[in-house]
Amino acid sequence: MTEQPYPADPPELRRSLSVLDGVAVAASSTAATTSIGIGLGVTAGVVGLHLPAIMLLAFLPVLGIAGAYSRLNRVEPNAGNGYVWVGRSLNPWLGFTVGWVNIVATVAFLAYTTAVTGSAMLQLAGEAGLHRVGSLALDAGSTAQTTAVGIVVLVAVTLTAVTGIRTAARLQTGLLVFEYVVLLGFCGYGIVAGPHPFSLSWFDPFAIPSASALAQGLLLSVFCYWGFEAAFSVNEEVRDPRDASRAGLITLVTMLGLFLLGSVAFQRVLSERELAGHGAEGLAFFGDRLAAQPWAALPLVALMFSAVASLQAGVIPTARGMFAMSRDRTLGPVWSRVSTRYGTPAAGTLLIGALATVVAALALVIPRLADMIMATVNAVGIVVAVSYALTALAAAARFRSLLRKDWRQGVRAVVLPALSALALLGLGGYLGWSFYTSADHFEVSADNGWFLLTTPLVMIASGFVAAAWAKYVRRSPYFRTGEGTDADAPQLLTTPN
Predict the structure, then answer these.
(1) Is the pTM above the cut of 0.90?
(2) I need a labelling partner for 464 at 20 to 30 A (CA). Which of 95, 105, 173, 353 fits?
């Protein structure tokens, strides 16, 4: 008898997480310290001294998206989340595309975070007086050196993720506590002691220089919020699926508070030129302005911890999403193999780590870390906006009957997600057009518009190629209006419980 490539009854993941564990996974995936330490500088280069305004403005559509995730999760908790919900409510091709772009975006994010982790470690080495190893001068801005160091860390956190999500959540909780204590302490002190006067214009979105700057700033800010939905990727491993919704919303509101605190503190301490000019070393520069060594190194240690935690948090939900896709035979059987010892998709977790390592190595075509960060953040920001928008439209389609039955519920379940989706799609389209019109030739460069536009388009187009393979070669039942989606999922409902 030959062995079946796919199990007749897909194995189940082990339920062991509490709502606090879900918050730890989602908060680590969002990586507030990394977003503040690096993302604020990148965003300030676009919108100037209006970081609080852009963070508040970006929160509104993301909150609508979070509401859509939460409501959909109530009626159909599933590790595949957007991939499952969009496939059933809109179209299997679009559903597969959501699952696919989340995979490729996270792999790109892991490659970027790998380099950020290496940069933080090299900066710490410099603070400790280690500037050379043999004849090699250590450079925290070198993509090659930061990637090499970061890959070692990526391998370690991937192995930890294999041993069980409970172990990973405990590690992330410890790292988060340290990060947030340091972040709150330094940002609080920066708001009080910063030399630059506070201005209400920082909160005025109409003062942002141009419409294209507003669009790019919003998508960069959406990227900063990206990751709260990791809580929904582990909802088959929490004791109560409603805990995933609570964890996602708690994380999102917490991120808003931290981003507003961080943006005001950075603008009180640093000038616009200093904010935009320090890239991956922004948090270290901020710490040096507020304290002497060794205290000034604490924000850098927090950045390193945040990057390590987000590496692990990126591996975990991606492996779960691919586990769900493998159960539906849209991906190969290797992704749905669950370790009998740990109760996790061990093989898939290791493969995700390996893929991220390969992509991190490919990113070496962009020699400077700051340029690589800008290119990655722009590309991922666009595909995340597409994924979020399609998931919100799925919620609007699924709960549309509520508009006739209860208009208040209908506004929350249908109108707000639909408006959020249209806002993100409009922003992504406008930004893509601005990239297209900003250049007249293609060049692998972070300031070349055609390159910045081509990268997300390739990510999305590759999803349709993979979907065609799943439908016509693998003959996945998922493409029969999503009916192959996880046989153990709850019955599709038209109204939430």
Answers:
(1) no
(2) 353
